[in-house]
Design a protein that fits this description.
Largest sheet: none
Number of helices: 6
Shape: elongated
Helix content: over 70%
Structural class: mainly alpha
Number of strands: 0
Length: 138
C-alpha cells in the first residue's frame, strides 16, 4: 500500500463514522414513521381510494429497515478493522494517528494534549502513516 492509500484509508474512518450515524438516524426515523401511521380509516380520512397503500408503504419501510440493519454492522466492522491496524503501531504513532484520524482532533490540539510541538506531531504522524502503509498491504 502506498502512503497516499494509507492516508485515504485512515481518513475514511471519520467518513465511516458519519455514515454509520446517518444510517442509525435513518433507521430510527423509519421506525418512528411506521409507528405514527394510522391504519384504520386511512383511505377515508385522507381521501385515498387505494386501500392497500398503507400496507405497501409499510412493506417498503420494512425492506429499507432490513437493508439498514445489514449495512450498519458492515460499516462498523470496517471501522473496527482500521482501528485495530492503528493499534498495532508503537506508542507515539498509534496515539497521534488515533487522536487525529479516529477522534478527529486537529494537530494543534493533539500537540497540546500530548505535550509535543506541532512540528513534532507532524513528524510522528508522517512516520506513523509510513509505517502503517508498510505493515498492511491490500
Amino acid at each position: 500500500m502506498t502512503i497516499e492509500e494509507a492516508k485515504q484509508e485512515l481518513q475514511s474512518v471519520r467518513a465511516l463514522a458519519s455514515r454509520i450515524a446517518g444510517r442509525k438516524r435513518r433507521l430510527l426515523s423509519l421506525r418512528n414513521s411506521t409507528q405514527s401511521v394510522r391504519i384504520s380509516r386511512y383511505g377515508e380520512s385522507v381521501g385515498s381510494t387505494d386501500k392497500d397503500r398503507v400496507e405497501r408503504c409499510l412493506d417498503n419501510l420494512r425492506k429499507l429497515e432490513e437493508q439498514l440493519l445489514v449495512d450498519i454492522p458492515k460499516l462498523e466492522a470496517l471501522k473496527a478493522e482500521i482501528i485495530a491496524k492503528i493499534e498495532v503501531l508503537p506508542y507515539p504513532q498509534c496515539e497521534v494517528l488515533s487522536r487525529h484520524y479516529i477522534e478527529g482532533q486537529p494537530i494543534a490540539v493533539v500537540a497540546q494534549l500530548m505535550h509535543y510541538g506541532r512540528r513534532g506531531v507532524y513528524r510522528i504522524l508522517n512516520c506513523g502513516i509510513e509505517r502503517y502503509s508498510k505493515l498492511f498491504t491490500k
